[in-house]
Amino acid sequence: MNSRRRHWTFIGAAAAAVVIGAGVATAVSGGDPGQPTAFGHSAGGPSTATGTSGATQPAGAGTGSASGTVPGATSTASTADTAHPASLKWGLDYSDTLTFDTPDQLKTALDDAKRLGMDYVRVDFGWEDYQGSADYPPDFSKFDTVVAAANARGLKVLATIGFPPPWARRDACKDTSLCPPADNAVFAKFVKQAVARYSARGVHYWEVWNEPNIDAWAPLPNPADYTKLLVTISAAIRAADPHAFVLMGGLAADHPSPGAPFTSPYDFITAVAKAGGLKAVDGIGYHPYPAGDPANSNTFLAISKSPTSIITALNEAGAPNMPIWITETGANIPALIWGPASQVKPQETSQVQQVKREVEVLSSYPNVVSFFWFSYQDDPADHLVFGLRRGDGTYRPSFAALQQIIADGKKTQ
Fold first, then answer.
1. Over 90: is that where the pLDDT of 4 sits?
2. Omega before 219 cis (within 30°)?
3. Given CA atoms 177, 180, 182, 185 in this order, what sign does their dihedral have?
4. How far is CA 19 from CA 156, 297, 330, 383, in A?
5. Residue 57 CA: distances (Å) to CA of 52, 60, 76, 156
6. How remote is the C-alpha of 46 from its chain's centroid?
7. Structural domains in the chain plus CATH codes
8. 83 HSE (CA, 13 A, CB side)
9. How far apart are CA 118 and CA 113, in angstroms?
10. pLDDT tens-place string over residues 346-387
11. How high is the pLDDT of residue 13?
């Protein structure tokens, strides 16, 4: 299993795809295959983000070493039909790649985030990457490098906690890093060490697990079980950093494989709330990946416009103002995987329209406070073709389009 794309690789077997065409995505087979799957304080995050690393001092993006032509601020993206959501927090999702990038790759990747106008980068923080044996203390050197590079560019880090090493997993699912820890207290000890280390370096945003409402919580989603971990880990985070902002792990809107284990966001949040889990978090993570026009996609309607929406669940739980963080959404280029090749360029053009529509629709929804794009760059080997950059490193038109949308939104701030 490719650790660089750890929590996405299990979608490779999914036969479904979303075909993007004429600005509208059409499902080829069941599920919502556009998805690449795997209160608290305030909507804005930590009330005080101290730290000593200068993370709040934006720096220049530099020139980077990107291949292809770097889109400039003079993008041809129209401003007439783009949203101007001044209040959105902007983020770019890198999965686990930054942790294993070479210095040049890391520089290029984060320079691009800065050029785009991003506020955040979302990065996996996998336990297995830092403590391979119970006999040795964690080695955080790889993540130190990522945090230092993000701080130098004024980018905040949202770290997704999960992925226990084999020695710490439950017996029932030892073969996958999607397996919950055998002992939440042992996991909490690791997390507390990490948060103490990185709160001093300006990292205050933590997402507990990724898509726990599907089989990314192996072997089956279990909201009561997840709540036990969430409460334990949240307490460890807050003990190490009283200013931390804790998100419930980004919930999948659907599962790309028809018939696969799936608990709807409404049902999952309701169950977590009944078990007392909402008191442990400051916000809800959600991954809508629309099938079709976002305005009509069930995955977007599930935020606030269906009887069993996320907002309905929050209202019923007595947390109507809890913020919803879109920590992943995107639009893929399925012709790269399933063909025909002649559709690649039209789908890339349609991806631009999809970016605009997703921002426009999400910015109109109550409680939605962020927009994180998945992903930075394609990984065709794992059928992940959602990137702003192609697998060969060249830039898609969607890079310039998103850059312009963010710039337009920030002009109104």
1. no
2. yes
3. positive
4. 33, 14, 13, 14
5. 11, 10, 30, 11
6. 19
7. 39-50+71-411 (3.20.20.80)
8. 19
9. 5
10. 999 999 999 999 999 999 999 999 999 999 999 999 999 999
11. 29
